[in-house]
UniProtKB/TrEMBL annotation:
Keywords: Membrane, Transmembrane, Transmembrane helix. Its main location: membrane. It is found in: Membrane. It is a multi-pass membrane protein. InterPro entries: DUF819, Tet-R_TetA/multi-R_MdtG-like. This is DUF819 family protein. It comes from Stenotrophomonas mori.
């Protein structure tokens, strides 16, 4: 972070906002290039990582002071985060998910259980292998990472605030996230996609449900896709920010009531108004998914939510101390053990069910990659299957906050915090 004796180059938050917006715009423009150096560069370096680390460079180099700016708190944390949760959950089609078939749902749930179990296994394993790795607030950083691996970036950020994770610890786990999920797991699943037919044949897997999914998805796309109008965008923003306003209005009295009447409120963070903002926003988004509001997804509701999310991610990056990120290399072993537990459980259940390789891959990425990279893995099996990744990935947004919160409480108990 910026040394106390040195004033940052930029102290005006409006200028800082412009810098962050220009940075994100440049990253996404370059990542969209279809040829040349940048295509090769972004095949190795995820755009998400740059959205964390370029703002962190600004902070470390003294261009901005991420701890003094108000861009993160209250703007990004209290407004953009809950709005992203609303817009990323409002598009969930639970009926459509049920029609995908029981094996896929079982594999998805297995992936979720694998993440939760892997958190506990890796914490205990590192306690035996290298106790300092799980000392201090490591459990809180793991809770944030569980939010990412069950849901996505918004859930990770929500857990960061729920458990008050230090910015540097959060940054370290952001690196673990990218290394284990984007560099190790996702490329491996894409590689297996090209060999799925042979693997399924050897395992005796029934792939007829996948063909049925391709047909249903093609029909849905033909009916729902449209170019968003100004009215669509106004309604999308109105729904997102309107729910956030209502959540803030209810959160403070709810937190106060819980603190006064529930003995376990402090241990469960139920006396924290922000926790209620996150939960109410997620619940509201899920409830709206059963109404016609879900049709806003055809006009890009999740894209607007993702836009909010990336501004949030950049504002979190502004608080990182890059010089401290590599002080705890043992965290990478923790991440490998955690991810290994997740994959092993999926493999065992897939063999027992004779599930197709696609179900295993999307059961994993629907959790770990969420709606951001799950469709990439799904499309590696067949382009028309990409929306299946989006469908399951959005479920993670709805469940990630609650399940990561439960995982965090278990880790907190294990840590004796």
């Amino acid at each position: 972070m910026t040394p106390a004796s040195t004033a940052p180059l930029i102290t005006n938050d409006i200028v800082g906002l412009g810098l962050i917006a220009a940075t994100l715009g440049t990253i996404f423009y370059l990542s969209s290039r279809q040829d040349g150096f940048w295509k090769k560069f972004f095949s190795w370096v995820p755009a998400l990582l740059l959205c964390y680390f370029i703002p962190a460079i600004y902070n470390t180099a003294g261009v901005i002071d991420g701890h003094a700016t108000k861009l993160y708190d209250p703007v990004a944390r209290d407004v953009l985060l809950p709005a992203a949760l609303v817009l990323l959950t409002v598009s969930i089609d639970l009926k459509g998910i049920i029609r995908l078939g029981p094996k896929l749902l079982i594999m998805f749930v297995t992936g979720t259980v694998g993440i939760m179990l892997g958190a506990l296994v890796s914490f205990q394993a590192m306690r035996l292998i290298h106790p300092p790795t799980v000392a201090g607030d490591t459990w809180a950083g793991m809770a944030a990472l569980a939010g990412s691996w069950i849901g996505g970036g918004a859930n990770m950020a929500a857990m960061r605030e729920t458990f008050n994770v230090d910015a540097t610890t959060f940054g370290q786990f952001a690196v673990v996230d990218v290394v284990c999920a984007s560099i190790l797991l996702m490329p491996s699943l894409i590689w297996l996609a090209g060999r799925a037919a042979g693997i399924d044949a050897r395992n005796g897997a029934d792939t007829s449900a996948i063909d049925d999914m391709k047909r249903r998805i093609a029909d849905y796309q033909a009916k729902s896709a449209r170019i968003p109008t100004l009215t669509d965008l106004m309604v999308i923003v109105g729904v997102g920010l309107g729910v956030v306003g209502a959540a803030h209005a209810l959160a403070t009295p709810l937190a106060a009531w819980c603190g006064a009447n529930l003995g376990f409120a402090k241990q469960a963070s139920l006396d924290n108004a922000f926790v209620w903002v996150v939960m109410l926003s997620t619940i509201a988004g899920l409830a709206l998914s059963f109404t016609r509001v879900r049709e806003l997804e055809a006009a890009g509701a999740s894209k607007v939510g993702t836009l909010f999310l990336y501004f949030l991610i950049a504002c979190i990056g502004m608080q990182m101390d890059l010089l401290s990120l590599l002080e705890r290399p043992w965290l990478f072993l923790l991440g490998v053990i955690w991810m290994g537990t997740h994959v092993l459980l999926l493999y065992v259940v897939a063999r027992l069910l004779k599930a197709p390789m696609f179900f295993l891959a999307i059961g994993s990425q629907g959790n770990v990659g969420a709606a951001a990279s799950a469709p990439v893995v799904a499309a590696a099996f067949h382009p028309s299957l990409a929306p299946v990744g989006v469908l399951l990935g959005t479920v993670g947004y709805a469940t990630g906050t609650v399940l990561a919160y439960i995982t965090g409480l278990m880790l907190k108990w294990m840590a004796g915090a």
